[in-house]
């Protein structure tokens, strides 16, 4: 649970006010340790400063310390500034200004500010007796908070809140800037983000768009792919990859995966190339780039473009180069759960080819090259300015976020080490485990590649039973993806059937993704590893 | 002299207005025995050690900030008339 700190509690702590400070100290410490956040209301800054000053003046007098007015002001600001580092500032919003009809406008502001939070997720920590009497559901005293049991804490599969805490001031500033300039479509943040992303990936052109799905569609439209064409891709991916091929009237031609990386197996691509093949579209699944050098070499031999679907791998590297900058076109997604996610849908395309960049820019805006002039058919595929403002706020810390994800993955790998075996297929001819006692395979990162762990996905023998046991212990797990695209009813017309892609089918039956986010704690990871080990 | 008072979340409130000469002084309070938590039911005794440790660390840091000698007046920006007025106003604020 989060706590919004009333001025009296902060003053108790900062001025060490007897006999209250001990309970207040413990309450804020308990909140922190339980993963709650402490909030200070921005609208209370002056009250906080002046009341702390008054309390310090009294305390200094009692202790026989003589401070000048300036010194007292200095001491007050030092203390409040130091304490505020433990908390987050909660912005004051306009509807928290119109509180003059209230008996106590200051308290009313705090109560209104809490309405922004989901019910039960925050309380006002105060020792104001009137507030405690009148709002027992919203307000709590330090003593009552200390007596409150946290209950069974659930592990989050992803944690966007913690990330938001770290960038909230920048996020709010960027969002407010858009609200003020009002250019919600193709505002200045779009161009700024495109320049930043192109620099980050190391390509000439970046074109933002409305989603990671639309980005694939736009890329293929720019390449002129249409009815009767074929696009080679993996069957072990999210539906969007194959779906966009089919939407254009083309046929997805699936090629089985490498069982260790779960990415398309380049060795098998050439056999799938036909006179109708128009492109190869590998997916850099779970956060690790596909073997792009091998794929590009095959593509070059046959004069084909390569579109890397890097929806999960943005930020990962292949031989020192960034994912999305490894082929003719790179495509990514800013879906909220992605390593670089917005607060809604969004995506981006990357290329060094100026003609393709122009085509993709036009297709993104109804095929328009200038206002009301449409040399080609396009779509409504623009990224919202607000989403660009949000992604921009996250971009500065993206490198740290990736490093933190890699650290979390390394901790999983280290703790799973005694349980690890080779990935599927792991049964021998007698259909017994090839490595008795070894219960899972951890993610494999191929040489000269880095992984950003959009998912931390293990290969396990009895997935459904394991998932159920984890659920009992409040540990979420997900399956990415339970059915290969070639077995989806929507792709019935492609003519594929069971057994056509054995590695993809084995993966679909066995993979399971564990909680993964940059701020996953060691305690939670130990809990997850123990739960998996003891479930066998 | 005896007064009746109510205890609410760390504060004593008198049932009738009383004015005192000094802002603080020692008093002896009689508390009904049944209102006192025994050791087992005191939430402070059931807190994890880490909570106490973290609170002690925070206290140590804040005490350090609070007790460090302030700079001399001439090293601190002066207080404007406006700030001084605000200080006066806030000193009248009812303490809760």
Polypeptide structure, described:
The complex is a heterodimer of chains A (536) and B (96). With 536 residues, chain A is an alpha/beta fold. Chain A has three domains: 2-151, 3-Layer(aba) Sandwich (Rossmann fold), CATH 3.40.50; 163-395, Aspartate Aminotransferase, domain 2, CATH 3.40.640; 398-534, Aspartate Aminotransferase, domain 1 (Alpha-Beta Complex). Chain A is built from 18 helices and 17 strands. Chain A has helices spanning 7-14, 21-33, 45-62, 69-84, 105-114, 129-134, 142-147, 160-181, 188-201, 212-222, 239-247, 292-302, 354-364, 385-395, 398-416, 463-472, 502-510, 522-534; strands spanning 2-5, 38-41, 88-90, 122-125, 139-140, 205-209, 230-233, 251-254, 277-281, 307-309, 317-318, 321-322, 329-333, 347-351, 440-441, 456-460, 511-514. A five-stranded parallel sheet of chain A has the order 3-2-1-4-5. In chain A, strands 6-14-13-10 form a four-stranded mixed sheet, sandwiched between helices. Chain A has a three-stranded parallel sheet with strand order 8-7-9, covered by helices on one side. In chain A, helix 6 (129-134) links the parallel strand 4 and strand 5. The radius of gyration of chain A is 28 Å and the shape is globular. Chain B is α+β, with helices and mostly antiparallel strands and 96 residues long. Chain B has a domain at 5-68. Chain B contains two helices and two strands. The longest helix of chain B has 19 residues, at 49-67. Chain B starts with a strand and ends in a 5-residue tail after the last helix. Chain A binds chain B through residues 8, 13-16, 19-23, 25-26, 28-30, 32-33, 46-47, 50-51, 53-54, 56-58, 62, 67-71, 73-75, 78-79, 82-83, 86, 127-130, 132-133, 141, 143, 146-147, and chain B through 8-11, 13, 23-24, 43-44, 47-48, 50-52, 54-55, 58-59, 61-63, 65-66, 68, 70-71, 73, 76-79, 83-84, 86-87, 89-91, 93, 96.
């Amino acid at each position: 649970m989060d706590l919004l700190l009333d001025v009296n509690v902060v003053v108790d702590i900062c001025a060490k006010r007897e006999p209250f400070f001990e309970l207040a100290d413990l309450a804020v410490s308990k909140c922190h340790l339980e993963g709650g956040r402490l909030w200070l209301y921005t609208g209370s800054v002056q009250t906080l400063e002046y009341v702390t000053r008054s309390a310090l003046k009294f305390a200094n007098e009692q202790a026989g310390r003589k401070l000048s007015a300036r010194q007292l002001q200095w001491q007050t600001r030092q203390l409040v500034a130091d304490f505020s580092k433990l908390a987050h500032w909660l912005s004051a919003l306009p509807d928290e200004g119109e509180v003059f009809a209230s008996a106590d406008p200051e308290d009313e502001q705090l109560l209104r500010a809490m309405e922004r939070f989901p019910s039960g997720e925050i309380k006002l920590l105060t020792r104001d007796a009137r507030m405690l009497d009148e709002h027992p559901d919203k307000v709590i005293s330090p003593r009552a908070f200390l007596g409150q049991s946290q209950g069974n804490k659930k592990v989050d599969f992803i944690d966007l809140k913690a990330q938001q805490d770290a960038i909230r001031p920048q996020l709010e500033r960027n969002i407010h800037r858009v609200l003020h300039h009002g250019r919600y479509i193709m505002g200045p943040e779009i161009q700024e983000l495109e320049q930043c992303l192109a620099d980050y990936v190391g390509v000439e052109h970046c074109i933002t768009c409305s989603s990671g799905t639309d980005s694939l569609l736009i890329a293929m439209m720019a390449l002129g792919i249409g009815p009767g064409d074929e696009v080679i891709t993996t069957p072990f991916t999210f539906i969007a990859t194959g779906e966009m091929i089919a939407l254009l009237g083309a046929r997805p031609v699936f090629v089985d995966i490498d069982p260790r990386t779960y990415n398309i197996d380049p060795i098998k691509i050439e056999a799938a190339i036909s006179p109708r093949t128009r492109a190869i579209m590998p997916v850099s699944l779970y956060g690790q780039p596909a073997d792009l050098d091998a794929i590009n070499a095959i593509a070059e031999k046959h004069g084909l473009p390569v579109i890397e679907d890097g929806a999960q791998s943005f930020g990962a590297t292949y031989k020192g180069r960034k994912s999305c900058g490894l082929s003719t076109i790179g495509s990514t997604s800013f879906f909220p759960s992605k390593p670089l996610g917005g607060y809604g849908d969004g995506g981006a395309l990357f290329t060094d080819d100026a003609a393709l960049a122009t085509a993709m820019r036009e297709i993104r805006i109804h095929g328009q090259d200038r206002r009301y002039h449409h040399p080609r058919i396009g779509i409504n595929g623009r990224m919202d300015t607000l989403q660009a403002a949000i992604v921009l706020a996250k971009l500065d810390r993206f490198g740290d976020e990736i490093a933190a994800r890699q650290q979390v993955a390394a901790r999983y790998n280290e703790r799973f080490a005694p349980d690890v075996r080779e990935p599927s297929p792991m049964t021998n001819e007698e259909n017994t485990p090839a490595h008795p006692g070894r219960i899972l395979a951890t993610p494999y990162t191929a040489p000269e590649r880095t992984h950003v762990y959009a998912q931390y996905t293990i290969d396990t023998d009895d997935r459904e039973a394991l998932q159920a046991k984890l659920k009992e212990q409040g540990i979420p797990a997900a399956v990415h993806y339970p059915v290969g695209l070639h077995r989806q009813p929507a792709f019935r017309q492609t003519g594929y059937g069971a057994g056509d892609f054995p590695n993809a089918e084995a993966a679909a039956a066995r993979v399971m993704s564990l909680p993964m986010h940059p701020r996953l704690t060691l305690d939670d990871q130990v809990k997850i590893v123990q739960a998996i080990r003891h479930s066998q | 002299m005896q007064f009746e008072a109510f205890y609410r979340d760390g504060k004593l409130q008198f049932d009738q207005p009383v004015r005192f000469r000094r802002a603080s002084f020692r008093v002896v309070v009689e508390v009904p025995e049944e209102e006192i938590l025994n050791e087992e039911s005191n939430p402070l005794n059931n807190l994890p050690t880490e909570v106490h440790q973290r609170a002690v660390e925070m206290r140590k840091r804040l005490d350090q900030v609070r007790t460090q000698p302030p700079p001399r007046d001439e090293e601190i920006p002066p207080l404007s008339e406006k700030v001084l007025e605000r200080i006066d106003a806030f000193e009248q604020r009812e303490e809760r």
